[in-house]
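Annotated sample (chain length 419).
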Amino acid sequence: MRRVVVTGLGLVTPLGADVETAWANLIAGKSGAGTITRFDTTGQKCTIACEVKPKDHEYGFDPDKRVDHKVQRQVDPFIIYGIDAAGQALEDAGLTEMDEATKLRAGVSIGSGIGGLPGIEIESINLHERGPSRVSPHFVHGRLINLISGQVSIKYGLMGPNHAVVTACSTGAHSIGDAARMIRDDDADIMLAGGAESTINPLGVAGFAQARALNISMNDRPTEASRPYDKDRDGFVMGEGAGVMVLESLEHARARGARIYAELAGYAATCDAFHITQPDPDGAGPLAAAVRLPTFWGLVVAFAGYGLAFSAMSFHLIPLLAERKVEMGEKFLRKLPSEYFDSNIRFSSQPVCFPKNQMHFKYLMEMCRGEDWLLYSSDWPHATFDPLNWVFHPHVSEEGRRKILGENGRAWYPRLKQA
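Output written by the structure step:
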């Protein structure tokens, strides 16, 4: 099997329309949440979301930088975000000018959890009120999830595998894992991989609120509403954006002198077949994925908060950092075969890295898995910050803080053997 590395990054988020800005705002503790501006929220139970900001905002998104005006008129925002993030990643990787042979070996794997829900809602109203002849001719191809990958491949002439994943909140992670496998199996040398989403519209917000998934108790305090690890948590806050990375075979990256951010050392995906939203309390899904990984030198465990899948990839194994969840994380870790560890679970000497960026991006559906990986692979080893100041209420006890972060205020994880 060929080794797979990360050579380019691209982000469109509520905290910034590029990796550098989003990372700086994240470290500064800023929140992307606010009152919904996209539509009239009269009658909605939830009136807050984490919107990608307009281009006149301090850290807004300008679609004109990388997306043709004609395409912007034809497609839903999630496709626009995906095209832009993909372009950023290619620019970052130094791959904007590729010869035909390289393009034949370059593909795209960008997915979405829901896709073009705003456009579906609008055209359904058109159909009902104005009749079939007034439905947009761009309705279908402007909303299909695979058209992120399709539009990216057309714009940049990428003729390798063209793939789209739809697995709710794990889509981004699955897209990256599937793309890595394509490179390892020699189907491609380069893959753009990640996820995009934009479902902040009346139907999307109402649907998630009716499912009792959204926070509806803090409409007057949007920046405090997304608290997945607080004992009084009350649902997530809708977000939107895109996260895309360039994956490349190690030999191809080295041959062209590319900057390498990280290596994706392993990937496995399972379903615990337990409940549509709740994880198996014994950690059966994560455990099954972990033991399937082909290599263990760098393993991350990412729990998809409202998704069906568990996904595991590279870097470090970080259990759920939550006062109410630590016991579950320990139970899972201790079930891993002992030969995977250099020693028993112990506190890390590394700066803390908090695995849930939804506190600031809020819940970006499937994209949150992709943006987690992008941020981990960029600059996180060099940053120190206290996630409890962002996430928990002040009433979290010192005992609870020590339980989560350790006596030295740092995250804990097991050391894994080198492959």
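Annotation: Confidence is low (pLDDT under 50) at residues 295-328, 339-370, 376-396, 408-419.
Annotation: The chain has 15 helices and 13 strands.
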